[in-house]
Design brief:
Blueprint (H helix, E strand, L loop, with lengths): L4 H7 L3 E3 L9 E2 H18 L3 H11 L5 H10 L8 H4 L3 H9 L6 H4 L6 H16 L3 H12 L27 H15 L16 H18 L16 H15 L15 H6 L5 H12 L4 E6 L6 H16 L4 E5 L2 H18 L7 E4 L7 H7 L55 E5 L1 H5 L7 H8 L3 E4 L7 H16 L4 E5 L4 H15 L18 E7 L6 E7 L7 E7 L11 H22 L4 E6 L3 H15 L3 E4 L5 H15 L12 E6 L13 E5 L3 H8 L18 E5 L1 E2 L7 E2 L16 E2 L1 H7 L1 H16 L3 E3 L3 H8 L12 H23 L28 H8 L6 E9 L2 E3 L17 H5 L2 E4 L4 H7 L17 E4 L4 E4 L2 E6 L3 E7 L2
Parallel strand pairs: 3-8, 4-6, 4-7, 5-6, 7-8, 11-16, 12-14, 12-15, 13-14, 15-16, 21-24
Antiparallel strand pairs: 1-2, 3-9, 9-10, 11-18, 11-20, 17-19, 21-22, 21-23, 25-26, 26-27
């Protein structure tokens, strides 16, 4: 190239970043390529998991070669900018390029578009083939370039528009200049020529997706103009200079990986981490992890309170040490369960290595309400949604947002927490340790923009998913798709569940192993069934033989079985044609029955938990109980504003949690009325449980709140655990049936069709309710349940095919309900299939080409994806404010500014007024509600619609009157006529 001054001149004018987006001075294209390559070297040295480095060494053909090829793969991403299609976009730069002898016909070029990512894939495919690369390696490398803006096109979409007649790709000396860019960059990295870069082994498609995410990460870091200002002289474009810039940027951003190469935990590690000797089930889980010959899947099934999470965290250490993982992702079913897990994971991480607690990120939409998280990120940017400064609008990706980089710009590390760079949109999973909702993993299984960043955030970690039984059939499609990709990527996964139906266990294992074996389909028919409880099931693909391996172990639980008495409290269930007055009367009667029962049972004191299947039922019962028990009643449900709800949840855990039971403030009498919020990961101890009927696995989860802790003083009447099941009807009317007296004739539930609440059937479906009712009926008259010993058998019966479970009079109804259930499940599964990352028939694909054959709408942000991975009608959140005259106030009465402006001191209080509305209001919220004018310039309020209440704290929306009560929460009143 030194022999061709014209070619050197061309390289010295091809720009990668405009002066406006590179600190006032344009950044040459080669400068940006080398900056990105140098960032990749920093990623290799200080971020990549040992397993990822090992993978790249294999791709390169030997130890030590992976770093160099990884740097090249990241840096080459923008080679498509060496085209008229890109160079014409910045007028000032375009003039200089044309003056240097690289021209185009502007009138023609201006009519068409050719994205520079597609252009890069097109050019590189040609240049690599020309250099002699085998087709197999050309095929997997070009999509890394073509997809670096978040979408992987099909190969036939790479070509420039034919009608552009070469004016976008370049004619004349353009091909020489394009080749020179790639060759200059390649030699600068230490390769003799392009053939010297050729890989020795093609990685799996999941590994390619992981690498693609790392390419995007390197590009985004190198696009920050504050750390990579423009270099406009070719003589100054050197790899060593780029390395200096990247080292300074890395230090300024405070980026880092996890624990690096982790030593295996020693014999006393469990006690060191958690301050207690491991229970037999915990030892069993750890020993099973130690026995696995390859990364695989661990399914841990154990009762509530057995210590599954602690066992999983130490198993994660074992798996990380053995298979080269550098961090952990812990996925929880809800935001509410993620918060306490965040604290637990931070404590564990700090005991693994000093300083790691600060690297744990909390990842869900309400994390700023978590006090512990907020303390960690104090000092981060005021506007964490600020636009990422270094992204160049001349990227010719006109539908980007931009580059998906609406997040923290990354000026420095947050004061006590993870690097601020990790706090932005789509980047949270890249943090080395993450606790969040399971949705974060489900998002990684969707065919959405920048999905590679999510996959890169999971690969190289150990993934722990809690309460996996909570995923319905729709969510399970994304869960299984995610497991396929994780299996192929060699990511160890630990699944936790108290109650897992056998078919669901087999499906989850099958999905992971199908991925690990790179098969389109696989069913683990040979998977052994656990013979005891607690149990652990391990599955992996043998490294050499390639066959499926399984290990199943069982042991005794740490606590003796609880003999739980099961009692029935039927109620009058109105038919579908019942009037509003009839429904209200039936509800009031049901509330009176529960209230009378509690008055009787709590006469000598005690704490009861009542779980209702709908908010309306919970609110109605609370009002009835408040008249009888006064301030000894609490209400907890999902339509409380998030601030009061968090405070109330904290109060309930304090009053009824583990510490309260041993002289720690447990009240002499208390009734907690709750919805399904109290069903999972809610560590309260009740003397008595009253619950609406639910599917058997969920019912057993609720029973897990009974007599949960030892050492609690209980009244003689409540000394033995009892559950009273209500929320269903009979043809014999209401009455109390079971262990403590009342109707004892089994015929009380022998009608031809049991009656269930409409809300319960809508939520759960009729078939699982029929089978649950049959099991409850049997238990009420045959001695109750042994918990947890009977849990596996009960769950198997609750979802099994045997008709012997149900009374003869119900069987025709049960068979009809089963057919309807199966049809609905199939329909929901097929509905999810359209959003999955890999389409059916393409799971054995060798490359990423065409992965986004049809991309999903939206930017791929979390808000867009919520409606994708969770079935049902979408709901929406609003912020409640009260207007008195012309003045807006918070729910607690604090005055806001003239236009609703929020002083910093009131921000948390305003956000604490957020409440989620039922789905029926979603359309009206979108059409009618907007943020207050004073919120539009505020990063955390500008997208939040305000629901303005009058002085009576009510309003009309969608022809219904809504009101907010400090105790009841959001109340739906009658339709407004």
């Amino acid at each position: 190239m030194e022999e061709d001054p014209e070619l050197v001149r061309m390289l010295s004018v091809l720009w990668g970043k405009s002066a406006e987006k590179a600190g006032g001075k344009k950044n040459l294209l080669l400068s940006h390529l080398l900056d990105t390559a140098a960032v990749a070297e920093r990623l290799w040295d200080s971020y990549l998991a040992p397993s990822t480095r090992e993978l790249l060494d294999e791709v390169a053909g030997g130890h030590g070669g992976g770093r160099k090829i990884f740097s090249w793969l990241c840096g080459i991403h923008d080679c498509g900018k060496a085209t008229p299609a890109f160079q014409r976009l910045w007028p000032e730069g375009a003039d200089v390029v044309r003056t240097a002898g690289l021209g185009w016909h502007e009138a023609t070029a201006s009519k068409y578009r050719w994205r520079h990512d597609c252009a890069g894939g097109y050019l590189l495919r040609s240049l690599l083939t020309e250099a002699g690369w085998p087709d197999e390696h050309v095929a997997w490398v070009w999509p890394l370039v073509a997809g670096h803006h978040g979408l992987f096109p099909r190969e036939d979409r790479l070509r420039p528009p034919v009608k552009a007649r070469g004016q976008l790709s370049g004619v004349g000396r353009w091909p020489e200049a394009q080749r020179a860019v790639v060759e200059y960059f390649t030699r600068e990295l230490g390769f003799a020529d392009l053939m010297g870069v050729a890989p020795a082994k093609a990685p799996s498609r999941a590994a390619q997706l992981h690498l693609s995410g790392l390419v995007v990460m390197a590009d985004w870091i190198a696009s920050d103009e504050r750390h990579f200002p423009g270099v406009d002289e070719l003589a100054r474009v050197k790899l060593e200079s780029a390395r200096e810039r990247s080292e300074q940027a890395w230090a300024a951003l405070g980026l880092r990986g996890g624990w690096g190469k982790l030593a295996g935990p020693g014999p006393g590690a469990f006690e060191e981490r958690f301050g207690q000797v491991p229970r037999p089930s915990q030892t069993m889980v750890i020993e099973t992890a130690q026995s696995m010959a390859a990364p695989g899947l661990l399914v841990v099934e154990a009762p509530m309170g057995e210590g599954k999470t602690k066992a999983a965290l130490l198993a994660a250490e074992v798996l990380a040490a053995r298979f080269g993982a550098d961090g952990v992702f812990v996925g929880m079913p809800t935001q509410a369960t993620s918060d306490p897990m965040f604290s637990q994971v931070r404590q564990w991480a700090e005991r693994v290595e000093e300083g790691l607690a600060s690297q744990v990120a909390l990842l869900h939409g309400k994390r700023m309400f978590n006090r512990e998280w907020r303390r960690l990120v104090e000092g981060s940017a005021d506007d964490v949604e600020a636009r990422f400064g270094g992204v160049d609008e001349y990227g010719d990706c006109w539908d980007d947002d931009p580059y998906g980089l609406q997040g923290a710009s990354g000026g420095r590390a947050a004061a006590l927490g993870p690097a601020q760079w990790f706090l932005g949109a789509k980047r949270g999973l890249l943090c080395p340790f993450v606790v969040g909702t399971i949705d974060q993993l489900l998002f990684a299984a969707t065919r959405t923009k920048h999905v590679m960043l999510r996959v890169a955030g999971l690969a190289g970690k150990v993934v722990i998913l809690d309460e996996v039984h909570a995923a319905d059939v729709y969510m399970s499609q994304f869960l299984m798709e995610g497991l396929r990709w994780l299996g192929q990527a060699g990511v160890p996964v630990v699944l936790l569940s108290a109650t897992l139906p056998p078919d669901q266990r087999r499906d989850l294992v099958s999905a992971y192993l199908a991925g690990a074996a790179s098969r389109e389909e696989y069913t683990a028919h040979e998977l052994p069934v656990p013979r005891g409880y607690p149990s652990v099931t391990a599955a992996w693909v043998a490294p050499e033989a390639g066959d499926m391996r399984f290990s199943v172990a069982e042991c005794a639980g740490w606590r003796a079985n609880l003999e739980v008495a099961v009692e029935l409290l039927p109620e009058s269930v109105p038919g579908r044609s019942a009037s509003r007055e009839q429904r209200r009367a039936a509800q009031e009667a049901a509330d009176r029955d529960v209230a009378a029962l509690l008055e009787s049972e709590l006469g000598d004191g005690g704490c009861a938990l009542v779980i209702r299947n709908s908010v309306g039922r919970a609110q109605s019962l609370f009002q009835q109980l408040r008249e009888r028990f006064g301030d000894q009643v609490r209400l907890l449900h999902g339509r409380l504003a998030v601030g009061p709800r968090a405070d109330r949840t904290e109060e309930c855990l304090r009053l009824l949690g583990a510490r309260a039971g041993n002289g720690g403030g447990r009240p002499p009498r208390l009734v907690l009325v709750a919805t399904q919020l109290a069903e999972q990961s809610f560590d309260v101890d009740a003397d008595l449980l009253v619950t609406d009927l639910a599917p058997i696995d969920l019912l057993l989860q609720r029973v897990g709140r009974l007599h949960r802790h030892n050492g609690v003083d209980r009244s003689e009447r409540l000394a033995s655990p009892r559950v009273v099941v209500t929320g269903f009807g009979t043809d014999h009317g209401a009455g109390h049936t079971g262990g403590s007296g009342g109707i004892t004739d089994a015929a009380a539930l022998d009608g031809p069709r049991p009656r269930f609440l409409g809300a319960s059937e809508f939520i759960y479906g009729r078939w699982p309710l029929i089978r649950a009712a049959a099991l409850v009926r049997r238990a009420a008259f045959e001695g109750g349940w042994r918990v947890p010993g009977q849990v596996p058998a009960l769950v198997a019966d609750g979802y099994g095919a045997s008709s012997e479970v149900v009374p003869p009079a119900w069987r025709e109804d049960e068979e009809e309900a089963c057919r309807a259930w199966e049809a609905e499940q199939q329909e929901r599964a097929e509905r999810a299939a359209g959003y999955l990352l890999a389409r059916r028939g393409d799971r054995e694909g060798a490359t990423l080409a065409g992965l986004h054959y049809v991309s999903l709408p939206g930017s791929g942000g979390d808000t867009d994806l919520d409606a994708v991975v969770r079935d049902g009608e979408p709901s929406t959140e609003v912020i409640l404010v009260v207007r008195k005259g012309e003045v807006h106030r918070t729910l607690s009465g604090r005055v806001l500014g003239v236009n609703g402006d929020v002083p910093e001191a009131l921000l948390d209080e305003v956000l604490g007024g957020t409440v989620r509305l039922p789905p029926r209001y979603t359309a009206q919220v979108a059409e009618q509600l907007r943020p207050l004018p004073g919120w539009l310039g505020h990063s955390r309020l500008r997208f939040s619609p305000a629901l303005v209440l009058d002085e009576q704290r009510s309003c009309v929306l969608a022809d219904r009157r809504l009101s907010y009560d400090g105790e009841l929460g959001l109340v739906e009143e009658d339709t407004v006529t």
